[in-house]
């Protein structure tokens, strides 16, 4: 059950975020530019916004763009972990995709995801930042391209997507939390 405080935070953040001009292109470098001052929960998105940004970027890939503030407002009530202290629970993205009629599916097994995603073009990866949960997690939108795996919002300061040879060059199975692929 949501508290009145959560609803107030959500409304204040939406009001604050809706007038921030993020442009119409993919979002990268969540700690850079106007993206870094958007709010999610009690924190700036430079700290906790990667899941929201990954959903935004995936929607853009699918030709179904919506404003970042609208995505955050929808996901926050059921996805935020401790007022945004730990960002958004990656599994909550599955609910968002279903409720919004997007043809996106979640896989929790790395090897199954890797095999399935090899035949798809767009997706999302959620993974631990290190070999321990205490280093937090990160979530990115990804695209299979002829050059390799293109990763959007790779890190706080990378303002352009980064291309890796393949998913294994980007991360290993021990850090994988879940992946999403678009039909």
Task: Report what the structure shows.
The structure is a single chain. By secondary structure, this protein is α+β, with helices and mostly antiparallel strands. The chain has seven helices and eight strands. It has helices spanning 4-17, 45-48, 50-61, 68-79, 92-99, 110-117, 167-170; strands spanning 39-40, 43-44, 104-107, 122-128, 137-145, 148-152, 162-164, 176-182. The strands form two sheets. The chain has a six-stranded antiparallel β-sheet with strand order 3-8-4-5-6-7, sandwiched between helices. It has a two-stranded antiparallel sheet with strand order 1-2. Helix 1 (4-17) packs antiparallel against helix 4 (68-79) and helix 3 packs across helix 4 (68-79). The protein starts with a helix and ends with a strand. The model has no long low-confidence stretch (mean pLDDT 92).
Give a quick account of the main beta sheet: strands, pairing sense, barrel closure: 6 strands, antiparallel
Mean pLDDT: 92
Question: How far apart lie the N and C ends?
Answer: 33 Å
Instruction: Count helical runs.
Output: 7
From the alpha-carbon coordinates, what is the Rg to the nearest angstrom? 15 Å
Task: Work out the helicity level.
Answer: 25-40%
**Beta-strand proportion:** 15-25%
SS elements, strand count: 8
Low-confidence stretches: none
Strand arrangement within the widest β-sheet reads: 3-8-4-5-6-7
- One letter per element, helices H and strands E, the order comes to HEEHHHHEHEEEEHE
Structural class comes to alpha+beta
Global geometry: globular
């Amino acid at each position: 059950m949501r508290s009145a405080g959560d609803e107030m935070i959500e409304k204040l953040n939406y009001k604050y975020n809706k007038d921030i001009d993020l442009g119409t292109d993919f979002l990268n470098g969540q700690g850079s530019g106007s993206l870094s001052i958007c709010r999610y929960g009690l924190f700036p998105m430079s700290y906790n916004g990667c899941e929201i940004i990954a959903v935004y970027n995936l929607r853009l890939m699918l030709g179904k763009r919506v404003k970042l503030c609208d995505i955050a407002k929808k996901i926050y009530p059921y996805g935020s972990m401790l007022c945004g202290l730990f960002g958004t629970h990656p599994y909550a993205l599955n609910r968002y995709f279903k409720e919004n009629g997007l043809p996106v599916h979640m896989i929790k097994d790395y090897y199954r995801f890797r095999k399935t995603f090899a035949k798809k073009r767009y997706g999302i990866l959620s993974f631990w930042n290190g070999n321990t949960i205490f280093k937090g997690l990160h979530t990115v939108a990804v695209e299979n391209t002829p050059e390799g795996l293109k990763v959007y919002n790779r890190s706080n300061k990378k303002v352009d997507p980064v291309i890796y040879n393949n998913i294994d060059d980007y991360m290993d199975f021990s850090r994988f939390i879940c992946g999403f692929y678009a039909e």
